[in-house]
Design goal:
four-stranded antiparallel sheet; 15 strands; mainly beta
Length: about 180
């Protein structure tokens, strides 16, 4: 479990140890984290989250003993409504809403370094995004466009995206989930 403890301004990772006892560990102090997604790679946690203080997307990578925190280099406000998936090479693929450009964006993170950012769709994302990777290694993201009230899915990588409308409604779809 990863969450923000707003009262103490800590972003926390919580897990059960081999004895079944809950353990807490501070990922990062002095921030208001939100819109997080947590995945495991070889039993070690990776987390993507939005920092309300710096207004940036961050990725936390835990090795055996400590957390390394990486911030997406940016001059604009990034990272809200973020989610991720990890491929077999420990590359993190993340989607997030850039509120400055009103774009749903994609970025890869590998070996302590962010790759280039790519626009997926020019939308106003109204809720959390969710990501998956299919058996062919294709990245997929589900999200809601608040303006058109469409629930959409995008498949692709880098600068090539296929966008499908899954549902249109007068009621906005919220909190999508995707599994492949």
């Amino acid at each position: 479990i990863a969450y923000s403890n707003g009262f103490h301004d800590n972003f926390i990772y919580t897990w059960r140890n081999d004895s079944g006892v809950w353990q807490n560990e501070i990922i990062e102090s002095g921030l208001q984290g939100r819109s997080c997604d947590l995945e495991l790679y070889n039993d070690l946690p990776r987390v993507v989250y939005y920092d309300d203080i710096s207004h940036n997307l961050k990725i936390g990578v835990k090795d055996t003993f400590s957390w390394d925190i990486f911030t997406l280099p940016s001059s604009d406000i990034d990272g809200n409504h973020c989610s991720m998936v990890i491929d077999s090479t420990d590359t993190i693929h993340a989607a997030f809403f850039n509120s400055t450009t009103a774009m749903l964006e994609y970025v890869r993170f590998q070996t302590d370094e962010f790759g280039l950012r790519y626009d997926i769709d020019g939308v106003s994302v109204s809720s959390q995004t969710d990501c998956a990777m299919d058996g062919m290694g294709n990245f997929q993201v589900a999200y809601t466009d608040i303006n058109s009230k469409e629930f959409r899915a995008a498949t692709g990588e880098l600068s090539t995206w296929e966008i499908r409308t899954i549902a249109s409604s007068t009621e906005s779809c919220r909190s999508p989930g995707i599994v492949i």
